[in-house]
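User: For my dataset I need records formatted as: sequence, then structure tokens, nothing else. Please produce one.
Assistant:
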Amino acid sequence: MRSEPHPPASPCRRQCCLNDQDICIGCGRSLQEILDWGAADTQRRRQICQAAEARLLSRKSPS
């Protein structure tokens, strides 16, 4: 039986500031994802981290 991997740590970088789309410019999470974090299971937390990372990367990419 496989054990459950450790849940990911919060991506919070203590640079909390929401932009006009309610996305944190520090960690890349949406306001709803920030609010959901505490009750989220491991799978949901991984999804949130992946989405946040993608937002941060797209912000750095030239459009």
